[in-house]
Design goal:
Length: 78
């Protein structure tokens, strides 16, 4: 995933930039994308789950990421 930010965004939201930089090596699947976008935008809804937002300090990196019976956390990655 690529997150682009403007210089103005960087000036206005340095803490979000720090969170983005700290997320570089975290495991992620695109089914969590909406939670990350909501978090970046500062939108809180009943459906928002901070444990699924890549940039949130409460992100659950231990959650199993399985798709079509392939476990992406334990499979050999090439």
């Amino acid at each position: 995933m690529i997150i682009w930010t403007s210089e103005q965004f960087k000036k206005n939201y340095p803490s979000k930039i720090n969170c983005i930089e700290n997320a570089l090596e975290k495991p992620y699947m695109t089914d969590d994308m909406i939670h990350t976008i909501l978090d970046l935008a500062g939108i809180k809804t009943q459906e928002f789950d901070e444990t699924r937002s890549l940039i949130n300090v409460n992100f659950n990196s231990k959650r199993k990421r399985i798709y079509h019976n392939q476990d992406y956390d334990s499979e050999l990655k090439i």
